[in-house]
Design brief:
Elements lengths: L2 H17 L6 H7 L1 H17 L3 H15 L2 E2 L4 E2 L4 E3 L5 E2 L4 E2 L4 E3 L3 E3 L11 E2 L4 E2 L4 E3 L3 E2 L4 E2 L4 E2 L8 E3 L4 E4 L22 H52 L1
Parallel strand pairs: 1-4, 2-5, 3-6, 4-7, 5-8, 6-9, 7-10, 8-11, 9-12, 10-13, 12-14
Antiparallel strand pairs: 14-15
Length: 248
């Protein structure tokens, strides 16, 4: 195994202890971490793919999918310290490009939107986190230190430090956590992702409440006008009656 590949695998191994608090021993990584197994097999398959041994590379990829439930095309380019947590159902397409320090969770799809042999899968820049069930489709770019919320479907490129939620995915924040020295922090906290649907409904409810108050005001004003009109009509009738009696 080439030294460079071994160094990458060593980093993939070490990063698990930094990003998974459930880890209890290194033997768990060796025996029970499908995400780690998948990335090791992918690095082997990718090396074969680059040497033109495409059928053998696809076979290694196929065996990895069978063993781990994670499908990574051997043509995909993956950077250092890549972490797949849980991993079942992850799909990474052929022309995907993934930077360093990227974290993805189960059910994530990096999919293509074309049948042509062109760049048709996403580019994920450094330190991006993609949460469970999200799909990033087409040759889009997810800027560094961005987060894609669970269940989102992203079909457009987003700038660095973006937080993306929804279907289709929309940028709802453009800031990231940083250390005191200014270095961006890999943010694995999905609890603070904004709920854009709840926010929209809240705004709609506030608008309806304002409309109801306005209607009540207009109704009260209309009621006053009707009462005033009735009084004026009664006075007018009395004047008419008086004039009639005077004339007779």
């Amino acid at each position: 195994m080439p030294t460079r590949m071994w160094q990458k695998i060593k980093e993939d191994f070490q990063v698990i202890s930094q990003r998974d608090p459930a880890l209890r021993s290194v033997w768990e990584i060796v025996l029970a971490y499908p995400g780690f197994h998948a990335i090791v097999l992918h690095r082997m398959a990718h090396a074969l793919w680059r040497r033109g041994l495409t059928t053998l590379a696809r076979f290694v990829s196929h065996m990895s999918r069978f063993l781990t439930g994670i499908e990574i095309h051997p043509g995909a380019k993956i950077g250092r310290r890549f972490f797949i947590d849980h991993g079942m159902g992850v799909v990474i397409g052929e022309t995907s490009e993934i930077g360093d320090d990227v974290t993805i969770y189960q059910g994530v799809t990096l999919g293509g939107t074309s049948t042509a042999r062109i760049k048709r899968h996403p580019t994920i820049e450094d330190s991006v986190t993609i949460f469970s069930g999200a799909a990033v489709l087409g040759p889009v770019v997810v800027g560094r230190h961005s987060r894609v919320g669970a269940g989102s479907v992203l079909v457009t490129s987003v700038p660095p430090h973006s937080t993306v939620v929804g279907i289709p995915g929309r940028v709802v924040k453009t800031e990231a956590l940083h250390t005191q020295t200014g270095k961006a922090v890999i943010d694995l906290n999905s609890a603070d992702l904004p709920d854009v649907i709840a926010k929209a409904f809240s705004g709609l409810a506030d608008y309806v409440e304002k409309l109801e108050r306005k209607v009540d005001e207009l109704s009260a004003r209309q009621g006053g006008l009707e009462e005033k009109t009735a009084e004026e009509s009664e006075v007018l009738n009395k004047v008419k009656e008086l004039l009639k009696n005077t004339g007779s």
